[in-house]
Write a structure and sequence with these properties.
Blueprint (H helix, E strand, L loop, with lengths): L5 E5 L2 E5 L7 E4 L2 H21 L19
Antiparallel strand pairs: 1-2, 2-3
Length: about 70
């Protein structure tokens, strides 16, 4: 399963979230660390959903860039 995550700069590093999994977030001092932390957070989030008998949502989000005049 591939899920899109959004990574943003935060006051002390970076934070990440996934629009497909509300409430699933992770912090990290570097971009590489926040990506790893988010992967673990997603795995734990999905495991918790399964244990509670909740349906795991299918990914719906995607991203792209558009070019505009600078």
């Amino acid at each position: 399963m591939n899920l899109m995550i959004v990574i943003e700069r935060a006051g002390t590093g970076f934070s990440a979230y996934s629009r497909d999994l509300p409430g699933c977030i992770a912090p990290g001092a570097t971009r590489k660390l926040v990506e790893g932390a988010m992967k673990k957070a997603i795995e734990m989030h999905l495991q918790g959903m399964r244990e509670e008998g909740l349906k795991v949502p299918q990914p719906r989000s995607y991203s792209t860039y558009v070019e505009v005049p600078g």
